[in-house]
């Protein structure tokens, strides 16, 4: 791909980020709600503020967060701070910055969600490919069938079922949390094993919840590709089954799956909200959930923007990698 | 001359839900080095099954149920699966109709050629292998630069040449070209055929050309084999086949070709090719045959060699024919076709 195309894509990425941040900025401000007023009104209901003081406090905080200034001026300073990766300060967890909150939570989400998304992609596609390959042993081919059923079970339900049977009934694995209560996580083996133990159920439910789709779509793709003339001709050339499987069959069948993978990456954060809730894990999803409950709009905007940028960047990355996989796409 | 390819009593059956389909029924064929055989017949007559069976590439629900394929002294039908992998391309090569889809779209041409050599010879150095590929490309009139290109960067004719180049990489003794010119325009068709012709002469390999295009056959092959319902109906040298076909089906096939003498007057072959699931008893062609005799409906004619060396599977030419039957045929023949095609009924002695 030419440098010009790469720059074009990157330019487009910036455009997407700008559009997303603009929308994130204006939509909440279209409503007449004032989160600072709401926050203090809530406080006033529980603790004894006098109404006069309240107005002064609200005015002071409004000035501090800059929401008393004209809209365009706010927009300019907002865009300016985004350019500096400054997402503002949390209202609820003041004085932590939104960026700090995201950075604290991100390793958890990446550790669980990204790893399971990739694992699910790899295992699912291999299973699907093997299931469609006519020379696979029968038991391996039959292996794909249960995933048709599993495909119909929502990951949420799967998670709850796993928690109930394996965590609650059999008490084999912990019911939730990132590590055992009372443990102070350190960089040593016991901590790591404890962490791993807590991640098994969430990981299994996430992998199995999403793998069925990969198995089925890959199997469908595989059936098409193995009938292609070039796979037949590869056999006529006397190539070994392994070479044909890897370079002539899998390589081609994977192409549309890679696009699917890019799309799946977009849902990583969405599933994080649910998964981290069910298994009471820390992570970006939990932070977002807390922020929504506390009406902490700075955090909500920050995370929404962060997700938009991450997903858009990953999409561009996949788009840049794709021509390496399929020469026909090269411009 | 010792034959380089011998197919003996080959039997291939497809097991379908509707029943057993005999795709190849007791087919025997001999080919000498340097000989070019054209294999013609209607769709479903078993031409491609024949090619696949020789490569041992029949896939389930199909099965080779009997017979032998001997190439250059090696009995392919006896080889283990591993050995058969090595025999493909080095003893017997297959050139697909490559204009459309026979090359892997995501690998460079060079890689696809190198793959083929490496599968047979994992000791040769990279340089030697590449040099061999380049030479093969040059021998089919392609530039060396094609080595580094992707299939989508080539035209249909060029892709077909690449397939031929791959086919000759390991100097096979037998080359099977399965409709190598379909989906190509007539000019490219001719160029591709000339390429096959030339590389075949260089290698001294025997070629089996499969196709429907009788015109193309007439120009390029030495012998023509006509297939009908999974059996050989007639095998003759090309001149005899076109001027004096013996089998009634071959006669009808040749008569259906347009020629300069009878412009605008074509004769089709009445009826349809039989389903392989319900092959007529006796001679499979008897329901459509203008010379049908009683014996045709019950006894299957075998491929016999007539005194002039031609091979025909038809009761018209075999001993058991009674005088009455023969006369009847002659009469019928006169009435069905103005020009007598069966000039002499050859009683084998």
Report what the structure shows.
The complex is a heterodimer of chains A (331) and B (349). With 331 residues, chain A is mainly α. Chain A has a domain at 99-291: MetI-like fold, CATH 1.10.3720. Chain A is 76% helix and 0% strand. Chain A contains 14 helices and no strands. The longest helix of chain A is centred in the middle third of the chain and has 38 residues, at 189-226. Chain A is globular and about 90 Å long. Chain A starts with a helix and ends in a 6-residue tail after the last helix. In chain B, helix 4 (126-139) packs across helix 5 and helix 5 (156-167) packs parallel to helix 6 (186-203). Chain B is globular and about 65 Å long. Chain B has an 8-stranded mixed sheet, with helices on both faces. In chain B, strands 2-1-4-5 form a 4-stranded antiparallel sheet, covered by helices on one side. Mean pLDDT of chain B is 84; it is low at 322-328 and 330-349. Chain B folds into 2 domains: 3-226, Rossmann fold; 245-336, no CATH class. Chain B contains 11 helices and 12 strands. With 349 residues, chain B is α/β, with parallel strands linked by helices. Chain B has helices at residues 47-54, 81-90, 109-118, 126-139, 156-167, 186-203, 214-220, 238-243, 248-255, 294-298, 323-336; strands spanning 3-16, 19-32, 36-41, 62-71, 74-75, 92-95, 174-178, 206-210, 223-228, 231-237, 304-305, 311-312. The A-B interface holds A 134, 228-230, 232-240, 243, 247-248, 251-252, 255, 325-328 and B 55, 57, 59-60, 85-90, 93-94, 96-98, 100-108, 115-116, 119-120, 150, 152, 163, 166.
């Amino acid at each position: 791909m030419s440098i010009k195309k790469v720059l074009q894509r990157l330019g487009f990425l910036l455009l997407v980020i700008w559009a997303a941040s603009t929308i994130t900025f204006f939509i909440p401000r279209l409503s007449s709600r004032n989160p600072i007023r709401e926050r203090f009104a809530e406080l006033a209901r529980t603790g004894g503020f006098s109404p006069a003081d309240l107005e002064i406090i609200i005015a002071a905080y409004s000035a501090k967060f800059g929401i008393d200034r004209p809209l365009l001026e706010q927009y300019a300073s907002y865009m300016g701070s985004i350019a500096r990766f400054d997402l503002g300060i949390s209202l609820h967890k003041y004085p932590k910055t939104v960026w700090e909150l995201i950075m604290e939570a991100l390793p958890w989400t990446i550790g669980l969600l990204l790893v399971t998304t990739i694992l699910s992609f790899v295992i699912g596609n291999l299973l699907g490919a093997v299931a469609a390959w006519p020379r696979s042993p029968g038991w391996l081919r039959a292996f794909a069938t249960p995933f048709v059923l599993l495909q119909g079970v929502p990951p949420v339900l799967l998670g709850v079922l796993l928690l109930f049977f394996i965590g609650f009934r059999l008490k084999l694995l912990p019911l939730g949390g990132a590590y055992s209560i009372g443990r102070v996580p350190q960089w040593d083996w016991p901590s790591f094993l404890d962490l791993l133990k807590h991640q098994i159920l969430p990981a299994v439910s996430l992998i199995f919840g999403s793998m069925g789709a990969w198995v089925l779509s890959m199997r469908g793709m595989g059936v098409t590709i193995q009938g292609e003339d070039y796979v037949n001709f590869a056999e006529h050339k006397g190539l070994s089954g392994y070479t044909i499987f890897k370079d002539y069959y899998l390589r081609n069948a994977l192409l549309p799956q890679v696009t699917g993978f890019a799309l799946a990456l977009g849902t990583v954060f969405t599933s994080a909200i649910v998964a981290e809730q069910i298994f009471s894990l820390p992570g970006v999803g939990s932070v977002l959930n807390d922020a929504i409950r506390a009406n902490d709009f700075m955090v909500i905007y920050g995370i929404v923007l962060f997700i938009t940028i991450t997903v858009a960047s990953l999409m561009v990355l996949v788009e840049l990698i794709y021509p390496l996989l399929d020469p026909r796409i090269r411009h | 001359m010792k034959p380089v390819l011998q197919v003996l009593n080959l039997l291939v059956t497809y097991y379908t839900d509707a029943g057993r389909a005999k795709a190849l029924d007791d087919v025997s064929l001999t080919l000498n080095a340097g000989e070019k055989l054209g294999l013609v017949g209607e769709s479903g007559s078993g031409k491609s099954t024949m090619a696949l069976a020789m490569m041992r590439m029949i896939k389930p629900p199909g099965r080779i149920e009997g017979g032998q394929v001997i190439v250059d002294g090696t009995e392919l039908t006896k080889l283990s699966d591993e050995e058969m992998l090595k025999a493909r391309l080095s003893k017997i090569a297959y050139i697909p109709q490559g204009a459309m889809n026979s090359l892997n779209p995501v690998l460079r041409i060079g890689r696809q050629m190198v793959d083929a050599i490496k599968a047979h010879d994992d000791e040769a150095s990279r340089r030697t292998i590449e040099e061999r590929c380049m030479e093969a490309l040059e021998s089919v009139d392609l530039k060396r630069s094609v080595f580094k290109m992707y299939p989508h960067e080539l035209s249909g004719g060029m892709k077909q040449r690449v397939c031929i180049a791959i086919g000759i990489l390991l100097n096979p003794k037998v080359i099977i070209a399965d409709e190598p010119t379909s989906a190509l325009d007539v000019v490219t068709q001719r160029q591709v055929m000339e390429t096959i012709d030339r590389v075949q002469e260089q290698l001294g390999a025997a070629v089996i050309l499969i196709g429907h295009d009788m015109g193309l056959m007439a120009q390029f092959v030495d012998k023509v084999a006509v297939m009908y319902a999974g059996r050989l109906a007639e095998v003759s040298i090309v001149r005899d086949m076109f001027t004096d076909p013996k089998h009634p089906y071959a006669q009808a096939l040749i008569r259906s070709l347009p020629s300069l003498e009878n412009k605008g007057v074509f004769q089709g072959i009445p009826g349809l090719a039989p389903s392989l699931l319900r092959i007529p008893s006796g001679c499979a062609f008897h329901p459509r045959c203008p010379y049908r005799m009683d014996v045709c409906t019950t006894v299957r004619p075998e491929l016999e060699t007539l005194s002039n060396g031609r091979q025909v599977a038809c009761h018209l030419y075999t001993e058991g024919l009674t005088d009455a039957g023969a006369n009847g045929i002659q009469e019928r023949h006169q009435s069905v076709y103005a020009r007598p095609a069966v000039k002499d009924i050859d009683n084998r002695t």
